[in-house]
Design brief:
One of its GO terms (cellular component) is tRNA-splicing ligase complex. This is FA98B protein. It comes from Sylvietta virens (Green crombec). Belongs to the FAM98 family. This protein is mainly α. Among the domains are: 102 residues, no CATH class; 53 residues, no CATH class. Helices cover 50% and strands 0% of the residues. It contains eleven helices and no strands. Helix 2 runs parallel beside helix 5. The longest helix is centred in the first third of the chain and has 48 residues. It starts with 7 loop residues before the first helix and ends in a 77-residue tail after the last helix. The relative contact order is 0.04.
């Protein structure tokens, strides 16, 4: 804050004048905008156009304080026009807004520091994994730059002892800018979230399938044995993806080559005894939407016609029932009821 109320005397005077002080207005608006930028709030305190908008300013302050659950009853209850008339109430408002802003900034700084520490610890773990893979001694107390220098020298020594094309060329030939790295991390986060959902579904299918095997009488007596074999392998599966941006940087040209799943080199690792089992002909269970026949139309249940109608000679009944009468719409001489549906005979 760089306004006119940095001095204590000026602040006291503005609190005495209350809503008639433009400086008091500006300070409240600044505190409200800073608080809103640090937390997700619906209400806000906006700039006013002089004394004419004092009432709207009071409404905004009231809504803002209610959303923040202000503990001062004098600021959130009673007549809205009388809440900021006293100097003490104005100081309470400034005290509440300033302390809330201070607390939000402390929490924000702690969150940023926590993210940095988490990122730093993740980097340390990656460097330690590199040292373990290269057979180098690593120490958690050592700083990362000297360790990376030693790792680079070790890798150069190893590469000097192998053929030139042993590792292959990098798939990514151009360096990435900070903006590109940030975009790639967002893409990777979205993909990780999608594949985590898929993994959870597949793991749930696995659990349900194994559980269904236990329904048979033969498997019920071997429940403990099944659990002893299955659970260690099941707990080793994680729904979280381990793919990071480092995998993209480490990718080589041979990764872009598409290898058939039926090729010899691939089948060496995927072949198993179940592949040699031939399944017999199974009945077609159907279920294809294009082959489903529509349901038959609903027909009204036919009922036996009752003798006699509801009218008289020319009323609604007729000679043997129906809507017409003897001389009505159906008619005595029309055996099928005519237009109206009554008459001599009807089936």
């Amino acid at each position: 804050y760089t306004g006119a109320l940095l001095e204590e005397e000026a602040l006291k005077k503005a609190a005495e004048n209350g809503l008639s002080s433009p400086e008091f207005f500006e300070l409240c608006i600044w505190l409200g905008s800073e608080i809103k930028s640090l937390c997700n709030m619906e209400e806000s305190i906006t700039a006013t156009d002089g004394v004419k908008d004092i009432e709207s300013f009071q409404l905004e302050i009231s809504g803002f304080l209610r959303e923040m659950a202000c503990p001062y009853s004098s600021l959130v209850s009673g007549d809205i026009k009388d809440r900021l008339r006293e100097k003490e109430d104005c100081l309470k408002l400034l005290l509440f807004l300033s302390t809330e802003l201070q607390a939000l900034k402390i929490l924000q700084n702690k969150k940023i520091k926590g993210c940095r520490l988490e990122k730093h610890s993740e980097i340390i773990l990656e460097v330690q994994a590199i040292c373990d893979a290269l057979g180098m001694p690593n120490s958690s107390s050592s700083s990362i730059p000297p360790l990376l220098t030693s790792v680079e020298q070790k890798i150069k020594d190893i590469l000097s002892k192998v053929k030139n094309n042993h590792v292959g060329k990098s798939l990514l030939t151009k360096p990435l800018s900070s903006d590109q790295v940030e975009r790639l991390e967002k893409i990777n986060d979205a993909l990780c979230s999608e594949y985590e959902c898929r993994r959870r579904m597949l793991m749930k299918r696995l659990d349900v399938t194994v559980q269904s095997f236990g329904w048979s009488d033969r498997a019920k007596v071997k429940t403990d044995e099944i659990a002893r074999i299955y659970q260690p392998k099941r707990y080793a599966l994680s729904p979280k993806s381990t793919i990071t941006l480092a995998h993209l940087l480490a990718a080589r040209e041979d990764l872009s080559k598409i290898i058939r799943t039926s090729s010899g080199s691939t089948r060496e690792k995927t072949a198993c005894a179940i592949n040699k089992v031939l399944m017999g002909r199974v009945p077609d269970r159907g279920g294809r939407p294009t082959e489903i026949e529509p349901p038959p139309p609903e027909m009204p249940p036919w009922q036996k016609r009752q003798e006699g109608g509801g009218g008289g000679f020319q009323g609604g009944g007729g000679f043997q029932g129906g809507r017409g009468g003897y001389g009505g719409r159906g008619g005595y001489g029309d055996p099928y009821g005519g237009r109206g549906g009554g008459g001599y005979r009807r089936y």
